[in-house]
Design brief:
Number of domains: 1
Protein name: 3D (Asp-Asp-Asp) domain-containing protein
Number of strands: 10
Organism: Nonomuraea endophytica
Keywords: Membrane, Transmembrane, Transmembrane helix
CATH class: Mainly Beta
Transmembrane segments: 20-40
Radius of gyration: 27 Å
Structural class: alpha+beta
Shape: rod-shaped
Number of helices: 4
């Protein structure tokens, strides 16, 4: 048994965590999460602006197919500038075969990108809704993100663009 005079000399708060450590840890975690959230590229996809059909020809002028050129506007919602380096869609009946990239988008800025779209079945592609997938590079590295549709807007209606271009 420990004598009482020894227990009296011991500091009762020696093993206790001080009240400020949980506060410091909480602030550090909050800052870490806020910094991490700021690293995620956030891109808003606005309704496509224009569409036109183009014939694909070789150097002799022979026609090899057709693509639709569609101009899309993307807004960088992140807190830092980004570079769009690639574009595509998750769709079964059409695909992006070309894009006027790379383009630098400042923080809070917008950029228009012309996407060249080729489809395998016009009727089925006209009813498909597909997000635009962008390859993004920034000061910290690169990522592949789906562009979110602007608030108060329906999903991107590719079928309207296909019909406008004569699909």
């Amino acid at each position: 048994m420990i004598p009482s005079e020894v227990l009296d000399r011991l500091n009762p708060s020696a093993a206790a965590v001080s009240a400020r450590w949980p506060v410091v840890i909480g602030i550090a975690l909050t800052l870490l999460l806020a910094f991490g959230w700021g690293l995620i590229p956030r891109i808003t996809h606005h309704e496509p602006d224009t569409a036109s059909a183009r014939l694909v020809t070789d150097e002799l002028g022979r026609v090899h197919g057709r693509v639709d050129a569609m101009t899309h506007t993307f807004t960088n919602e992140a807190l830092y500038p980004i570079t769009l380096t690639g574009a595509g869609v998750r769709a079964e009946h059409f695909s992006v075969v070309g894009a006027a990239l790379p383009k630098v988008v400042p923080a809070g800025g917008s950029v228009e990108v012309e996407l060249l779209v080729e489809y395998t079945s016009c009727l089925e592609a006209a009813e498909e809704t597909a997000p635009v997938i962008l390859d993004v590079s920034a000061w910290w590295g690169s990522a592949r993100v789906a562009a979110s549709v602007e608030e108060d807007a329906a999903p991107v209606r590719w079928h309207e663009m296909f019909r406008e271009s004569g699909c």
